[in-house]
Structures are given as C-alpha cells and as structure tokens.
Amino acid sequence: MNRSFSIYLDLVRIASALLVMLYHSNLRLLSVEKLPLSTHGHAAVIVFFVLSGYVIAHITATRENTPLEYWSSRLARFYSLALPAVLLTPLLDLLGEAMAPQFYGDRTTHDLAWLRILTSLAFLNETWTLSIMSFSNVPYWSLCYEFWYYALFAILTFLRGRRRVAWCAGAALLIGPKILLLAPVWASGVLLHRWSALQRLRPATGALLVAASCAAYGAFHHHGLTEAGSAWMRQLIGAHWHQQLAFSRFFVTDYLLALIVVCHFAGMRALAPPLERLAPLVRPVAAYTFSIYLLHQPLIQFYGALLNGDPARPWFYMTTMAAVFLSIFAIGTVTEQQRHHWRRAIHRLLAAPPAQPLPAVVLGIDTPIGLAIIRDLGRHGVKVYGIARSDGAPGLGSRYLHRGMLRADDVVKQLQQLGEEIGPAALFAIAEHDILAFNKARDALHNYRMMFADAARMERVLRKDLTYAAAAEVGIPVPRTWHPATIDEAQAAATQARYPVVLKWADPNAMIPLLRQAGLQLEKACYCDDAPAMMAYLRRYQSLGRYPMMQEFAAGHGLGQFVLMKDGQALYQFQHQRLHEWPPEGGTSTLCVSLPLSQHAALMRQSVALLRKLEWEGVAMVEYRYDPATGQAALMEVNGRFWGSLPLACQAGASFPWYCYQALALDQPIDAAPYRAGVRCRYMTAETRRLLHVLNWRELAAYAIEFLRPHSGYFVFDWRDPLPLWCDLRHSMLQRLREQRYLKKTR
C-alpha cells in the first residue's frame, strides 16, 4: 500500500466515522432542523466494512502473518475500546435517563443488563435471529459482525485442509446466516487487495473509475435504493423474517454499494493523489476513528440529557457535540491509544512457551499441590506426566498434563518402565513417604533427576529434634519442647508446661508402621488444655513404649517462608501469612495471602541460615507461628517438600516448580521474576468445613465477600484450566454417594 493511498484511506475513515456520528446525532431533541448529510450513516458503515477487509488483507500480507501476531493485534484492537465502551454505556444511560428521560425513550434498553454485557463482550449480539442491543450503543452491532469476519478470515488464512472446513462450518453454525449475509461486503475489501489486475490499473482508468463510482453513488443515494431494496425484500420474505434480519435487511443493495466502494478505492489507488503533506494532520485524527464510531451514541444522549437545552438554538447542538468530542478524545487517549499494552499482554497470554528438553513426572496429582506443579511446569513448556491414586484426581483433568496414569502397586517398577519409554526426566514427589521410598531406590531410578532432597537431608527435617537443634544454633526461637521416653518423664514435664500443649510426633513417617502394628492411627497433632487431658492422651501409647513430643502452644498466626536452595545459596524466596486454618487452632492453610519480602526480612535471613545449617538442597518451607502482639516468631517445623499452599505461590508469580526444574533438573540459572504481594488463595473444601465449624454472621459475610476480591484465587479452580474443578467435584459427589450406600447396607 503506497503512502498516498494510505493517507486517503485515513481520510475516508475519518469522513465515514463523522457521517455515522452525524446520522445518530440527527435528533429533533438536539436540533429542530434536519442536519445536512445526515442520511449517509448506513452507507458509511458499508464503507467501513470494505475498508476493514482491505486493511486486514494488507496487514496479514505484510506483518501479522502468524495466528499469534494476528490475534494479539486484533483482540487488542477490539477489547481496548470495546471493554470500556460496554461497561461505560449502561452507566451513562442510567445517569442520563434520570436527568432527562425524553432523550432515551425507545433508544435504549434496561432489562437483562448482565446478558447484554456478556453477549457484547463475546460479540454474540447479532447471531442467528438475536439482535441484542448494547444498551443505547446502536453502532455496536457492526462490531459484532466485524469480529466474526476477522475470525472467518483467520480460519481461511491460517488453516488448511479438513481443519479449515471444520472450523469454518463451526463458525458459521455459531453466528448464523444474518452475519454471513454481509460477509461478501467485507470480503470485497480483501478481493480489492489481492486481485492483482486491479493493482495494475493506469491513472486514466483510475480517474474513470473514481468518476463513475462517485456518479453511481450519487444515483444510488438520490433514488433511495437502500430503502427500496429493503422494501422489496420485505415483500419477498414477509414482514416477520424481514424484521429478523435486523441490520442485514439491506444486504441486496449493500452488495451494490460495496461494488461502488471497491471501484472507487481501486481508482484512487491508481490515481495516487499527492496527499503526503496532509499526513501530520490526518494521522492523529484517524487514530481516534474507532473511538468516535464506538462511543458517540451513548455520549450524545448523555450530554443531551445533561445540558438539556433548546433544540431550536444551534448553540445547544454545538455545545453537546463539543462535549462529545472532548470525551471521545479523552477516553480514546487512555484506551484505544494504549492498545499496545493490551497487545503485549494478549501476546503473552496466547503465546505457547518454548518446549523444554526434559519431561517431568509428577506423583501426587490427587492434591492441589500436584495440580499446581502440573500447571506451572506446563505453562513453561514442560511435557508433564502425572501419576494419580484414583481416576478422580483433579490433576488428570488439567489441560497442561501431557499424559496421566493411575498408580501401580509397585510404583518404583512403574517409574522404571515409564523411564524406559520417555528417557531422562525430572521426578517430582509430594508425599514424604514417596520421597523416602524413592531415596532408597535412587539406584533403580537412575534415569530420573530428583526434585527433592536426598535421604540424609530429609532425615534432618523429618526429625524435629535435629531441626530444633539446628534452629537453636542459628538463634531461631522454638517453643518449649519435651521428648518423653517414659510415662514418668511425661508426668514430670506436665507439671512444668504452660497450657495449652500440642502433642505431635517428632518423626511421623517413622511412626506410621509402628502405630499400624499396634492398631493405632497417626494423628498429626492433638491440643490439650490441661495436664489430665494430656496424660490421658499419652497413656494410649504406653503399650507401644513410644510417645509424641510435647510442645507449648505458640500464639499468633501461621507464617510460612519458602526458599529454593542450591549449593548453599538461596535462589528464590517467598513468604505468606495464614489467614485461616483447619482446624482453626492450627493445621492446614485454608486461606492465605502473599507477603512482601520487606516484611520479616530478619526472620527470612534466619530461615536461610537454618537451611544452610541443615545443608539443604531444593525447596523447603520454614513454618513459624508469629505473634503480632509481641513481634516474636516461634519455629514449628521445616517441610522439606512442596507445601500445601503452593497454589498461592504460583498464582502470585513465585513459580517454584519451574525454578526447581531449571536449577535441579537442567542445572541452569533460574529465570526468576519478583512475585506479587497481596495475592490471596483459598482451599475451598477445607475453608467451607472451617466456616461450618465457626459459623457466625461475620465469618459468613467474610466467606462471601472473598469471592468478590479481585486478587483472590483458589487452590483448585483456575479459569484457564477449569476441568480439574469438575473432576474434583465429581469425585467428591461419587465418594459421598458410595459412603451413603455403604451406610445403608451396614444398617
């Protein structure tokens, strides 16, 4: 496209936008006299359609020649202005109609507001026989047409063979015949660009085409062919179907009008008038034509209602339109003119990450932790294989999972067979008993690069006595703790302790088989309010000869500091605060929020020092109870694995699975970015159980308000990956039904 013709098209774009604006401002409430040139509005829309087809054909031939580049630009172009226009219009209508309802009458709509907003944002207002008006914004209909022409053009341009046919058929079935009727008008612009014979016209031929097209349009408008064609169509198909066609009811004469426009553009391109000097004046105004087109209608009615002057005086019309123009340029400056930011954001969202050289195998995808690892690795281009305990595992539904499988009885042998199939891979394990088992089988799993610490390091964090000893050496406070070997030692400690006291096993994984042999179950923690309750609990284990450790309860809330360590260096740090836990007195995090690293900075340095003392490699969570009243933190434990609130870290931008993969599997520097503080995340299952336990009006209100927070996410639900939530809900419902059937059979 030569520069002269490009400037001419900008002039046409400006003129067309102003004609549409003039057409909609031709209200007797604004001016008692009929405005000159106010009857060319529909013709201007057809010009826009032809022009749009031409421009899209040009940009795909020159720069937007991949689906990613095409859709990044097109969606940015649409949504940078469509989103604010759709949300602003009902607000303007509401205010304007309250001030002067006569400016609205039947020119706006009120009912089903959310439906109108959603269909407008999805550009579905004009599908099939629908004609959903976007409140007072009548011109929005053409945007709903144009979006689907963009989609059809992309299908025809970027797809081949059966996929092209299938996608075209699917799009046609979605949008219906009404939008398709005007598709030839839009396609005529594409034809104008691609038909090589039209590009070789001589100037004399061009001048003839320009003169003929101008004369043809003059005759077309003089004889009212648009209205005549519409009337003929009404007689042919009947009043009902004519009404159902809505804005496509002029399609027969629109084809003729499109032909006139194409001839005019072809002639002007051949003439190449010297317009380069006008570029500094034309280009800035042309940049606002989309804003003029899409915003003028609701603004005209709003300012008409606001000023509410005398339509017999030209000053009222001029003042109203001046306010409209000023508003359009103000809004367009912060929306349409900033669409490059939208384009970059959409490009990042749509772009597929580069494929990584090493696949990953994740065990424990039944949990939100495993699901978070799948999502984080998958979004960074890692091919992920997942192993689940049941077919209801949420991770099996993730679109980021390359392949899922159920866990075999001999999982080590299963991993060996998988390794023979896929070659070297990074192995992620979540459960501590899996980590212990795989550490024993490292020689058998030599094909895998372990994303967890070795056996010696794991022992240091699983045995709390060793962890607490290391903490004491680096100056980290630990609640007073006793490790009774006999019931008499426990009785002596009971007289010294301050209550409540928490009883928990120093090495729970080592105790699981011993407790099972004694017919006992492992309890993560028991809270005792006095010495008799504590001693009664401890006597349960006299026959075993082993006792849980006794620890004074630490007041405050849970504080987790998370670190990725390698070769004694902290590669990445993150921290969060537990807002809610289940059980409420301390346990699993059900609602948590990311904290900036500027908070608790001294404590974070101590956490890193503790991990160095433990010679730690990999990810770890150093868990504290922090009392805001005293500013003191007490160490609870070190989790030498991926932790329960990992979804929060990933949603905040702390991509620990990806960083761990880079550092330990690829042995590369991590591509780290700062995370976002203030991000909140909920584990809905446990959070709901907590709500039912502490039910009161304040908690119920907070539970509901959390859904409305803009920076609040969920452990399982993710709008980009919705199927895991359905898998989780389905599995929970089936499990509940099985439990009920079992109870009925046993009664």
TrEMBL record:
An annotated GO BP: polysaccharide biosynthetic process
Keyword ATP-binding: yes
Species assigned in the record: Duganella aquatilis
GO cellular component, one term: membrane
Protein name as annotated: Acyltransferase family protein
Gene Ontology terms for molecular function: acyltransferase activity, transferring groups other than amino-acyl groups; ATP binding; metal ion binding
Keywords: Acyltransferase, ATP-binding, Membrane, Nucleotide-binding, Transferase, Transmembrane, Transmembrane helix
Domain (ATP-grasp) ranges: 468-665
InterPro entries xrefs: Acyl_transf_3_dom, Acyltransferase_3, ATP-grasp
PANTHER family hit by this protein: ACETYLTRANSFERASE (PTHR23028), ACYL_TRANSF_3 DOMAIN-CONTAINING PROTEIN (PTHR23028:SF53)
Presence of the UniProt keyword Nucleotidyltransferase in the record: no
TM helices/strands, residue ranges: 7-25, 37-57, 78-96, 138-159, 166-187, 246-266, 315-334
